[in-house]
Amino acid sequence: MVTREEVRELLNYVAQEGVAVSFYLNMDVHNKDIQDIETKDLIKNARKDLASLNLDRTYLRAAKENLNQIRKSVSSENAGSKYTSMAIFANSAERFFRVYRLPIHVKSKLVIDNAFYVRPLHSLLEEHNRIGVVLVDSKHARFFEIYIGEIHEDLEFSSAGISTRKPLLETFMKREKKLAQKKEDETRSHLSSVADLLKAHFLMHHFDKLIIGAKKPLRDHLSRLLHPQLHENLIGFCEIDIHTRESEILSRALDIKREFELREENKLLREIMNEIERDGYAVKGLKRVIEAAQDHSLQEVAVADEFSHAGLVCPGCGMPYFSEIPPEEKRICVSCGEELTEVADVVYHIVEEAVRQNAMVRHIRGTNLICSLENIAAVIKFKNSEFEKIEEAAETES
Ligand SMILES: [Zn+2]
Q1: Against a cut of 0.70, is the pTM above it?
Q2: Residue 252 lies in a domain
Q3: Is 311 a residue whose pLDDT tops 80?
Q4: What is the 3-state secondary structure (H, E, C) of the chain?
Q5: Which residue, among 67, 59, 68, has the nearest Cα to 19 in the 3D structure?
Q6: Are 272 and 380 found together in one domain?
Q7: Which residues are placed with Cβ below 5 angstroms of ligand 1, an ion?
Q8: Residues 113 and 189 in one domain
Q9: Cα(24) to centroid(ligand 1), Å
Q10: How far separated are the first and last CA of the chain, in Å rounded?
Q11: Residue 118: per-residue pLDDT
Q12: What separation in Å is there between the alpha carbon of 338 and the centre of ligand 1?
């Protein structure tokens, strides 16, 4: 599985020697021939691209070696693997070769450039928080972690001190009322130890978002006992039996997660719309978002998942530029003076730049709101008019 650190490393990778080859393949577990044919086609096109690049002979040989490695990796992949796609990043000239198997669908693609094409992986990580699911009844608790479509039970959680209290021999002597009181106390202390354990796991970054699976009075009790920071990251409840099978828990949790994401997406898009309407801190459309990137003003970017657009990029600092620069203006990067190069997908470079500016990037799926925002929009840190005022003030001062 790919980690955030690895994605960051891939994002920052620039080939000093040779070329960076990025390969994505959707795998069909039922028909291995199709994936072999698809790979062959992608490699055939890549060979044509390579020929047009005028590479140094050693680098060309290294790049061809990468394509062969990719073909071999695909054909040696076991049929019936539980993963639905694979991603390979390679640069033989720098002895770089990495294979990731992913349990989600990606668009098959082979890209040759001086940096890796990481957008699909990045969007994957962005939208896949680590979800913790805790199932509780009045005596027991189970804890699961869900990440990129896979579920794992944390077996230590249920054995870690929960419900290991000795049964008290004298309880049968007590009157009924007292018994009920004791039971309530036990449930309460059981729930607080669950809440303590959850807090520990959360603070150790074992998960980002939490779902509670329990019957109604219990789940409300537990949610009130949660650490405030954890309570903020509680994304939903489900009424589910503690002995439910993992596959069922996974599917219920993914539904809750999807609903939560839709709520968050809509909230962000509405916030952007309101800001734009009152001429506040947001912009929409490719041109304005690129300008905000150039002002280092990106705070949060919302982009339609399938949206791509041709444009320009600075090969020196990676800054994206809008393609329709008036002919009288030179195609030169304002910050480092390098000549801009044309790229097929400038949106990808906006996402990269946003990551460099520590902005959140949200890949929006299945909503009409993002269409009305021209497929890309951003919350910004400062407005152009503020710059102008600051500059005016500076001029009057001097
Ligand atoms: Zn530059």
Answers
A1: no
A2: no
A3: yes
A4: CCCHHHHHHHHHCECCCCCEEEEEEECCCCCHHHHHHHHHHHHHHHHHHHHHCCCCHHHHHHHHHHHHHHHHHHHCCCCCCCCCEEEEEEEHHHCEEEEEEECCCCCCEEEEECECCCHHHHHHHHHCCCEEEEEECCCCEEEEEEECCEEEECHHHHHCCCCCCCCCHHHHHCCHHHHHHHHHHHHHHHHHHHHHHHHHHHHCCCCCEEEEECCHHHHHHHHHHCCHHHHHCEEEEECCCCCCCHHHHHHHHHHHHHHHHHHHHHHHHHHHHHHHHCCCCEEECHHHHHHHHHCCCEEEEEEECCCCCCEEECCCCCCEECCCCCCCCCCECCCCCCECEEECCHHHHHHHHHHHCCCEEEEECCCCHHHHCCCEEEEECCCHHHHHHHHHHHHHHC
A5: 59
A6: yes
A7: 314, 316-317, 319, 333, 335-336
A8: no
A9: 28
A10: 57
A11: 87
A12: 6
Q: How far, in Å, is the centroid of ligand 1 from the Cα of 334? A: 7
CA of 339 to the centre of ligand 1 (A): 8
Q: What is the pLDDT of residues 316-331, one digit of tens each?
A: 888 999 987 666 677 8
The pair of three-digit structure tokens given for residue 85, joined into one six-digit string: 């796609």
Domain containing 218 equals 131-244
CA of 186 to the centre of ligand 1 (A): 64
Q: Across all residues in the chain, what is the average pLDDT?
A: 86
pLDDT digits 0-9 by tens, 40-73: 999 999 999 888 888 889 999 999 999 999 999 9
Confidence of residue 101 (pLDDT cuts 50, 70, 90): confident
**339 within some domain:** yes
Domain-located, residue 261: no
Residue with tokens 């991603």, as numbered in its chain: 87
**What spacing in Å lies between the alpha carbon of 23 and ligand 1's midpoint?**
27
